[in-house]
Amino acid sequence: MTLPQTRTEPDQRGWLAKLQARAAIFGARLLSQVARLAPRPPPQPDGDRMAVYGSEETARVALVTLLGLDIADGIAALDAARKALGRSHRIVCVTDGTAIAALYRAGAMVEHIPSRDEQLLRAPDLRWSAYLQDRYDLLIAKWRPEVVLAYGDSFERMIDLVLADERDAS
User: Fold this and answer.
1) The pLDDT of residue 40
2) Integer angstrom CA distances of residue 19 from 29, 31, 135
3) Sheet with 61-66: strands ordered across
4) 3-class secondary structure, 63
5) Which of 28, 74, 127, 154 has its Cα between 20 and 30 A from that of 9?
6) What pTM was computed for the model?
7) What pLDDT sits at residue 158?
């Protein structure tokens, strides 16, 4: 019966050297990724040139509500908004529909709120009018739209309808 041979000292050094080399490569890659993410110091002004930092003119935003519309009507409303605004505004669609991908493919940014059916299905006891008002305030604060276009129901009308439903239920 033969016993398995154990590693000799030179083999262990070779294995260790390979492991150290791989660790060095991985470490170098990790450091390069971290360095890429680290903030860079601003360049120093060169002579008469002055370095100015900050955002350029903020983009003009249009908030387009597509509440209560199916996807075909939503796409048609998005096209109508584009024709009305031209290329001067970034369009953010607020929808309660489920076909959000089609709006993304059409080039719009999308914010989703639950439809009234989803509200009643998911949490019928929740005060949805307060939620919708808070969500509307957050959307206005987030996007700071220059214009709000309502196709289908407006946010205010949806809040009023939900509030009326809540009053009837109590």
Assistant:
1) 66
2) 15, 18, 54
3) 109-112, 90-95, 61-66, 147-150
4) strand
5) 28
6) 0.65
7) 93
